[in-house]
Amino acid sequence: MRHLPTRTTRRRAVGALAAGLLGTLGPGTWGTTGPAPAAAAAAPAASASSAPVSAAPALDDGLALTPPMGFNNWNSTHCRAEFDEAMVKGIADIFVDKGLKDAGYEYVNLDDCWALPARDADGKLVPDPARFPDGIKAVADYVHAKGLKLGIYTSAGTKTCNDAGFPGALGHEYSDAQQFADWGVDYLKYDNCNNQGVDAEQRYTTMRDALEAASRTTGRPIVHSICDWGETKPWEWAAGVGHLWRTTGDISDNWGSMLSIMKQNLPLARYAGPGRWNDPDMLEVGNGGMTDTEYRTHFSMWSVMAAPLLIGTDLRSASEETFGIIGNKEVIAVDQDPLGRQGTVLSSEGGRWVVAKEMEDGSRAVALFNETGSPQRVATSAKAVGLPEADAYTLRDLWQHRSYNTAGTISATVPAHGTVLVRVSADGRWAVNPPAVELGVSGDTLTEAGRATALTTSVTDLGRTPAKRVSVTVTGPEGWRVRATSPTTAGSLPTGKALRTGWTVTAPVGTPPGAYDVTLRAGYRSPSGVRAESVLPLTATVAVAPPPGTSDLGDLPWLSTTNGWGPVERDTSNGESAAGDGGPLTINGAVYATGLGVHAESAVEYYTGEACETVGAQVGVDDEEGADGSVAFEIWADGTKVASTGVLTNADAAQGLSADVSGARMIRLVVTDGGDGITSDHGDWASARLTC
Fold first, then answer.
1. Is 250 a catalytic residue?
2. What global pTM score does this model have?
3. What ranges make up the beta strands (E) of 291-450?
4. Which residue of the set 111, 186, 228, 250 is catalytic?
5. 660 catalytic, yes or no?
6. Candidate list 84, 186, 191, 279, residue with the active-site label
7. Mean pLDDT across 460-465
């Protein structure tokens, strides 16, 4: 984790290569696309079998031949008091008791704040006796007795990143490395704060040499995790220095942060391999800031990128859904494949991503990822992912744990922010599996209570064999009326043929605004009579048009939000990562009582129901980031940009921005990063008002 020494600079450089979110879709339409996100359009296409390329050979010590798996406390505890010996031992217990050790999780890692702020008279590090009364060696012994390994943290500077000023290892590398080895430490996360301007490669190389020296005297090898936040492009020089290197700034527990980091890490596939891994930071799965669908995407994409899998949630209070995600052995097998290839981007048009990873057995893991805010068809082929020509292929869905046959098409309608992860092989055993079918839906999902909305569903046979006795249903919440307007069954669907059915869906009068689950389900049989089922979860959004007159946007319900750091705030600045932690909206010294506080990349969407005329605000960079930050503001109406600013910085006074939105069903307020990454990009929509 990148812990910087002041509160307002703790998440630097998380978006230098990231795309804007302005083109992602809101909840209004299924099966259609809006403007393509910028980085999606520019994402490089590559062969799924591209060999890794590194500027230096990996360390020849047999460590980290697959991406490290384990736990780190920072994302869930930071420096709070609950980070202590009892927690660390409790996590080790859970690794064993919940089957995570058997799934491959190995390291239990301590982050910052484990030591006292001062070294002892001999210059040695001193564990905090309040947090670790038995010392680090006793904790290491406990962890080792469970068949696990212990990790620890320090910084390649004079102090660590926490404001308390815990001692860093710069100038103490050999002494500290020896202490770590003597205690039984197996993994070192080496941060970048307070580095005094010393060359990064020099600092990290010195620690490499110190760890190797300590290993020679103790027989304990230590994994070296370089954490310079990607600032010096360590992928170009660190393969012979460490076993993994951070490629980005810190992750935070929200969709925008995870997406931005993923987009920075994906282009670096050629640098990864056994003993040298790109590290896009720790997992946020289970911390509560994203949906389960988004967490499955997080875990899927980290696995297809061959990223380290370091759990960042407190497992002592984790839900069964969280354990189900982080414990999925089929997904973990993609991450841990011994060939060590990172997945490569094959396509990304319109936020519909195909990322393929070559596996040691010749199969391909394929992630069909939907960046947008509505379900999208994402498709590729066996040929495109690098598989040899064959009559048919076995397609294994790694989240559904079911196998199918496909004639060569690899496709799915993927829910908003979702990922379908499959493993496809030309194994000759395809015929024992039922045919894969693809469920699709088109039509308008945004409705007002009491008004019918029309949908069309499709069930398409992708298999080499026909789908028999096909039936389709759509179900909504209790009290909703769902009616088919065309046939819902078919006796047989040959390869490539589809059953299309029209539907009307009506939410009852009085249904509160919000998102509601709707499920598309198809049942069918293989030619041999094997039953199969395919399910597509969908979302219908019930909206209410704004009242007549002029309303503050901070008082109106929004349809959806994305934000680069923490949540969007009403009538305060963005603040930090927690909800409600902002201050007064302040632009170049001027304070505003109402509005929205955001952080690039950001999008806030409202339903206007063709009843509004204008939207406007005073916009600019909030003063809470000092002299940092550069953003641009945009207003979109039904997928069309209708107003925008140039790039604004903290030196600029608030600028008025308004647009005519007459006839629009939806408006979207977008803040982009100004083209230089999202560092400190706190934007304010001050005095934001909508007239209807």
1. yes
2. 0.88
3. 309-311, 344-347, 352-358, 364-370, 376-381, 393-397, 402-406, 409-414, 419-425, 437-444, 446-447
4. 250
5. no
6. 191
7. 98
